[in-house]
Specification:
Length: 377
């Protein structure tokens, strides 16, 4: 038993050696990955981690600067959760793939060694047609049926997964341990904007590909540093709708949701609807003994200068939600409007500092030994 201080908050943590109530799907997961899983569950009961996509790769007006993030420029701390993407691991030349792996490897290892957490989205370039990861009428093929076992592009898909596995095996810290990652494939599958979206594939094919992907990575390719996250967009209004394409408890560690539409996109807010959806999968995760997270959200350009405290944190503190983290989307390098976290001088900067100072939220500086059984915050 231990009392742990965070800012002016207390977090009570109790571990029983050798006994875990929440078991992840990979029984052979590395010690650090298992510990992260348990610690995320503990944190989610009273607090939430803040995450930002591509936080360390680039930001508003800069790119590839060591140990920089827009979040750190505002608060003095990197986000607790850093988002990266495997988009360049397929549909590129071998040289381009290796270059992408080298850049991301350093990102992941550096985050791990600082004590932060990496989550991975996968904007998967269509392996069976042109069109990239978006669905483009007249160009894109409905390819999940082609990459599933027995499909025309299944062997090609296995090679792509080998590239991912090779990367997962390579993210070794100086002490030789592998950096854990939260892997979130085929996200927003209930929409139609990606080629794996609901209108482009059957429920059966989606589940078959998901189950093969997880099994092949952990059981055949020996990837044991992944936590697997399942995250539709916000197009559900009940537990049954949320679970329509659920591949089964043995293939998912974390339940999530991407939701921009209810939280101010295009000036439209429906916070009651957003909270109701968060409550659906948070309660479901508690029932299934899984993790839950708000895997993507945000308000582009953040024109609402009180969005962090009057919209986001108010919602997150409601209804006894148990969410491990909330992640906002990226800050583009050149666009004057495409950003989701503040930078110095942005109108919501002061409110974001209040969000940072709230005992409910954790950033990277608040994490100590998150990969240990006895972590400090």
């Amino acid at each position: 038993m231990k009392f742990i201080t965070k800012k002016n908050a207390l977090l009570f943590v109790c571990f029983t050696a050798g006994h875990f109530l929440f078991a992840q799907i990979d029984k052979n997961a590395t010690k650090e990955t298992k510990n992260l899983y348990q610690n995320l569950k503990t944190i989610s009961k009273k607090h939430i981690l803040f995450g930002h996509q591509h936080a360390l790769e680039y930001g508003h007006g800069w790119s590839n600067e060591p140990n920089r993030s827009d979040v750190k420029s505002v608060t003095g701390s990197h986000p607790a959760v850093v988002g990266i993407d495997f988009s360049d691991f397929s549909g590129r030349s071998k040289d381009q793939i290796e270059k992408a792996k080298d850049l991301l490897r350093k990102n992941v290892i550096d985050t791990y060694e600082r004590g932060g957490i990496t989550t991975v989205s996968w904007h998967f370039n269509n392996p069976a047609s042109e069109g990239g990861f978006y669905w483009k009428d007249g160009i894109s093929a409905a390819s999940l049926s082609l990459i599933k076992p027995g499909g025309s592009h299944h062997e090609e898909y296995k090679e792509i997964l080998k590239t991912i596995a090779d990367f997962a095996h390579s993210v070794k810290a100086k002490n030789g341990t592998l950096s854990p990652m939260i892997f979130r494939p085929f996200h927003e599958f209930d929409g139609d904007w990606f080629w794996w979206g609901r209108t482009h594939t059957s429920r059966q094919d989606f589940i078959a590909v998901w189950q093969f992907t997880v099994s092949y990575l952990k059981d055949t390719l020996g990837v044991h540093n992944f936590i697997y996250a399942f995250s539709p967009d916000n197009k559900f209004n009940s537990e049954a709708e949320y679970l329509e394409r659920y591949p089964g408890d043995e293939f998912v560690d974390m339940l999530g949701m991407d939701d921009y539409g209810d939280f101010g996109r295009d000036g439209k807010y429906d916070l009651d609807a957003g909270l109701r959806k968060l409550k659906i999968f948070s309660d479901l995760a508690i029932k299934k003994k899984k993790l839950a997270a708000f895997t993507e959200t945000g308000l582009e350009s953040i024109p609402n200068e009180k969005w962090w405290t009057e919209v986001l944190i108010k919602t997150l503190k409601s209804e006894n939600l148990q969410l491990a983290y909330v992640l906002v989307w990226r800050n583009d390098v050149t666009s004057p409007t495409h950003y989701y976290a503040p930078f110095p001088g942005q109108v919501s900067e002061k409110d974001f500092i209040k969000f940072y100072d709230d005992p409910f939220t954790f950033f990277e500086k608040d994490l100590k030994n998150i990969y240990s059984k006895k972590f400090k915050i």
